[in-house]
Amino acid sequence: MSEAVQERVPVDVAVGVLVERDAQGREGRFLLTSRPAGKVYAGYWEFPGGKLEAGETVEQALKRELQEELGITIGAAHPWKIELMDYPHARVRLHFCKVYEWSGEFEMRERQQMAWENLPVQQQPVLPGTIPVLQWFAAERGFVGSTHVG
């Protein structure tokens, strides 16, 4: 296989869409984190997560990544959508999972920032792979207009 073709093989990434729910179970704010300094797209806002390691399921990877990055332990990860994104540096297959339950105190272990957001998202810039999720939220919630600033 040529090097160019090999580079475009998708990397599987588990992504946690942490969502607060009210007493009636309606979805509310969601968590975004910034990409840490030293990583590609540093400073861009995204949903937290990371690459699957060999032999891991999406849920196992998500539990590990959110513990490593944010210091929290999540409950069930509810598979939601899968999106294939082509970035200049990599092709990634994003496995988005909604998460409604977690425990522990948030610790930004990679010196990233966090923000609880609603539509339209105020943090900017937003990572391109995050924009489809905001559009899915808009469709689910009957939100009309731009999903993010900038």
CATH topology: Nucleoside Triphosphate Pyrophosphohydrolase
CATH uppermost class: Alpha Beta
What's the count of strands? Answer: 9
Number of helices: 3
**What radius of gyration results from the CA coordinates?**
15 Å
Strand fraction equals 25-35%
Can you give the helix content as a percent range?
10-25%
- Major sheet characteristics: 7 strands, mixed
Straight-line distance between termini: 40 Å
Instruction: Give the CATH superfamily.
Output: Nucleoside Triphosphate Pyrophosphohydrolase
Task: List low-confidence stretches.
Answer: none
Q: Secondary-structure element sequence?
A: HEEEEHEEEEEH
Tally of separate domains: 1
Global geometry = globular
CATH architecture: Alpha-Beta Complex
Which structural class fits the helix and strand makeup? Answer: alpha+beta
Averaged pLDDT: 94
